[in-house]
Fold these 2 entries.
Entry 1:
Amino acid sequence: MIDLFVIKVGGNVIDNPALLDEFLGNFAAIKGKKILIHGGGKIATRLGDKLGIESKYVNGRRITDGATIDLVTMVYGGLVNKQLVAKLQANRCNAIGMTGADANIIPAAKRPVKEIDYGFVGDITTEDIQATQLKALLEAGLTPVFAPLTHDGHGQMLNTNADTIASSLATALSKFYTVRLIYCFEKKGVLHSPDDENSVITLIDRMIYEELKADNVLTDGILPKLENAFAAIESGVAEVLIGHADDVQSNTTDTVAGTLIR
Amino acid sequence: MIDLFVIKVGGNVIDNPALLDEFLGNFAAIKGKKILIHGGGKIATRLGDKLGIESKYVNGRRITDGATIDLVTMVYGGLVNKQLVAKLQANRCNAIGMTGADANIIPAAKRPVKEIDYGFVGDITTEDIQATQLKALLEAGLTPVFAPLTHDGHGQMLNTNADTIASSLATALSKFYTVRLIYCFEKKGVLHSPDDENSVITLIDRMIYEELKADNVLTDGILPKLENAFAAIESGVAEVLIGHADDVQSNTTDTVAGTLIR
């Protein structure tokens, strides 16, 4: 019996006020213990443009220099996080906004400089997550809402991928709870036919996954998501679900609209 | 016996990196339960200038329009708050950054429009503070760090004076703890001679206060601080202390460097 939902909502929902309001209403209505992790969206890039902070990418990955970590700390940890918290409170969900620095929940290590210097980017070791402290907040009736930020334990904030934070928290909390990790994105789930939203594959286990791969059903975009899902399950997460942000509520029930992986 | 310190640090400390680092080291070393409330400093004004968000004042009081509440939510609730938390964590203080929206600790009401429309400014009713929830965080070994922000319960963040948040939290927590409320500013305390930093008045009670007023010892700047201090004491706060940020540690002991009001 699932008794904790760890839910990641992507930047495309954050960037769309109508979609976001609907999502937050649905999220607030989910019964039982839950955690929300939010992506950043495009607000930081837009604000950075106004401030003359250039968005730099190497091989498609963002470089977080000193000005950028301040920017994302403001935007993700301040503006976006507090707007989500205030709106969840309005929906009678007792949200508490956090970064990985708060209560030291997610200590991280600045990514070592090899060929590329990613700057102030934090890599998480799941064993370092302060799961007992996070459990205390959940048991106090609170719903933690995480911005995609961590810290190095020496006073420096770090930028960390929201998907990674979600799977790391889900894994760390699996020692206390039976966790369903839910990734909300803009499609209904893993599709049999990429263009047909009604072709959602309801259940994928290892055997079905190997068959789908062999049949070339899976697109390049979905393969890493599924690999990450199986990695989470092998680390103790009970179930992973990939589905549309609109379906978040039904995706916490037994009759899911998205793709359940276990 | 004091068992909770509620400490407010002003914007002049926030704006001075060397002073701030020293203050945070001293704050982290304070034994026992403690809460920090931080002012905003000038970072929001500087960032607002860059973004073309004008700082508007009427009768010396800031007007918080829509662009300004987003700005201070970013800067106070994100950048400043998380930098304080990360630095306290580096000093082995298990800080958790918050606004009044988080865990619904400080619900507020948007100030009614009379002669002046202050915009998104929140007024607190002490009875509405969720003191039990805040106590649970303290009992879990956490040190809450509050940005000067509240919310209206309907999804809107509000700007609230940090001194007011400090005295309101101290008052609300007085039903559980014996509280010393400490205001850290740039002077050693209430001075007998305004120009002599060694003329700190160590103890002020109602009787001494009336004498000092009658003797015209008190400057215009210190009078409202003392009035607020006595108001807090009359609402249940055990002691109020006014002192220098550098002296925060000794000001939590019995041999204070600043001015103790009780």
Entry 2:
Amino acid sequence: MSLDEASQKPLDRLAAALAADMAAVNALIATRMASEHAPRIPQVTAHLVEAGGKRLRPLLTLAAARLCGYAGAHHVHLAATVEFIHTATLLHDDVVDESARRRGRPTANLLWDNKSSVLVGDYLFARSFQLMTETGSMRVMDILANASATIAEGEVLQLTAASDLATTEAVYLQVVRGKTAALFSAATQVGGVIAGAPRAQEQALFTYGDALGVAFQIADDILDYAGGAGIGKDRGDDFRERKLTLPVLKALARADAEERAFWDRTIARGRQEEGDLARAQAILARHGAIGAARAEALDWAARAREALARLPDHPLRGILDDLADYVVARIT
Amino acid sequence: MSLDEASQKPLDRLAAALAADMAAVNALIATRMASEHAPRIPQVTAHLVEAGGKRLRPLLTLAAARLCGYAGAHHVHLAATVEFIHTATLLHDDVVDESARRRGRPTANLLWDNKSSVLVGDYLFARSFQLMTETGSMRVMDILANASATIAEGEVLQLTAASDLATTEAVYLQVVRGKTAALFSAATQVGGVIAGAPRAQEQALFTYGDALGVAFQIADDILDYAGGAGIGKDRGDDFRERKLTLPVLKALARADAEERAFWDRTIARGRQEEGDLARAQAILARHGAIGAARAEALDWAARAREALARLPDHPLRGILDDLADYVVARIT
């Protein structure tokens, strides 16, 4: 995961500060991914869970709860819930994207089959739902139900909007919320809810997670055209998969007829030829599209940091602040 | 849906008795399957929802609630929840089974693509989750979370167990619970819960739904080998899809070496030839396997009716009693 690699330093500090909590989360995940009846479930899940990723989302939940002074045990359930939802969406995404590799290993749909990925994903959604009911908080259920709907809606929207040149930046933002920001913001918000934080703090946690997620996704979309080596994804993936991202939207808004025909052929109709990626990068450079997208990512990171100012003073707050910086540092 | 067609008469009476409630359910479904951002969601959902089916599961929820004297409005939310979960599982099942037709129409995965079926299914799961949170009942959440896990677990189990000749009747029953009975029993139980019924009645509603579901699924599995025309599914589907069902398990238990080799070739290894279905039917007949499976289906229907005796006297109770009879009448 490119996010996890890119933001390693503040994330490592977050993991160190929350090591005991995270050990409890990992133990709970191991227990709950078991299935008495269907051994394929833990096989598929373990393949993905053990491959790592830095567990950013559960760390956000734990951090939010601790930041708001929580001393109970339910933040562990919520962190595991969030990780199960994330793992379920990865399994389904790999089917949808027909991916062959994830976290440096062959995807579950390749090792087993699409059927297993769909059904084990469903199982993990159901398990996440069981975990959250154990907290007994209706507010938590409500927030995570809404986040789940936003995630699925964003994914469906991406199917239809991603290759449509009429897609607006507002629609792009909706897709980004579904892909990334909805689970980030739910992860931070439910940490505050379980801690009984005042509504203003809960809202600040939501805003932090949302803005962090949007900043990250824009940065990731920029790196797909402008990244160096070692960013953890292959450059040009989005272009080859015909996904209209913010840099292209910026360039499209300034395109002349010839450039429009180029985007129409490569993205809308998917007839790509040798050298098209380099030409796309040249067009983006000509219009300053990368710079324009970068300015937006920095703006979202600033919003994330502003939201933190409304939260209690706490060592974890400093790490979350650095995390927002780090997410966009790789594009600046 | 063969269930819906086969049990039409008592189901029609149930629909007539609950017509006003069901109109409210249909209105709620229409509202909630909308998506502000992704028009493909209502397109895919409407394709399936409007194709009909008799809405047996939401009717079970409405009937259970009314039977227990419920006078509120949340049974409508729960009925819509149950129908959304059902619709989501149908969308995912069609991807897993690579089905081409459902309810007499081309499947969504054929009309759109597997991606849309997976993601719209996820969206409907999330929507069902939002609907149930609106009831504010943690017990309801708990029951439906557990049912969702049982459904997914049963489906995964079917992937691995269905073509394995070592599968036991206990594993078959677990698969049947996942495919059919878990949602039936959750549908009836949550109707009782929302009505504030005593635990004994709630348990009786669970048992009715569970036994009805198992009876139906065994009957359906029998019809796949022994049904006449017009049963709503093609005879031999399970055989061709290499699904070990109860009639085959009964025959396997009594198989000689030659028959075992036949099942090994056709089910375990899937090397089927012209005439194999007829030979399978002849083997089942020789061992009385259909009769043995039928006796179990009748036993489950009797358990369903017994459970009803522990519920309040009510006109709907008589219809539910007839429904249990009707589900197995087509195999007797």
